[in-house]
């Protein structure tokens, strides 16, 4: 069996699609995408049409993690909104088919920017892509969750209190050793949660440029991808996630903008991006942004720790990269502590 099909039973998928997906015709081939550390993702190719399959990984999983059913539901709900998403074809929650739940969606024929520097692109393209990223984010936070049937997609109460509690539990469950910076950040966040301002919107949970697909020869977003962490929550978490990513070093590992002359590349400053977002949503500005930034560093550190633990257990989607990521937990935690002091 080839590496491409090592955790995907192509014959079983083919038989299932023949029975459940209208217009499907084999023969079927599958290739696993290298991207994605959480839910293994495959390109399914047939003579007439391509699809994408995302599945839960095999092995013992943390409770509530890898919820492909939630990914499917939220993208299905957004299909007729101003938030671009791929079309959802079907969800299979029967573990007996391939060993875990999976869904099949449209394959978007576009381009993906792995880094916000968008090497090789013109300044005009960079400016337009980042502004489109800003527009889509604002549109996401203006979706009427009741109208699209997602009012129960997240529990009530203070989002940040809930999330800090959840990710602290996840972090403790996957902890492989004591990281003092992480312990300090968890305590500091718990003591500095802002009062609930009443904003309750759909949030993506991992909003960044490499989770978006754009036109091949344009700058329009074709679809926002990877909705595993989506829920009903506070919009500033998503906005701060973008700024957090940009504070990372540039290159394949950090995929950020630290030390980059943004003006020379046609890229906005953090403040310009935040101001444009506030303008689109009709907001006067955002107070205490350092907390939201610190929260994102904390959550990403917890996620990376989980990926690292799965790599040690032999369940990571990309084991080699997962083990390298493990060293960044303390780095993210340190950035979070610095953001709180800013």
UniProtKB/TrEMBL annotation:
Ranges of residues in domain Aminoglycoside phosphotransferase? 30-253
**Which InterPro entries does the protein's record reference?**
ACAD10-like, ACAD10_11_N, Aminoglycoside_PTrfase, Kinase-like_dom_sf
Q: Which UniProt keywords apply?
A: Transferase
Organism superkingdom? Bacteria
CDD domains, sorted: ACAD10_11_N-like
Quote one Gene Ontology molecular function term: transferase activity
**Which protein is depicted?**
Aminoglycoside phosphotransferase
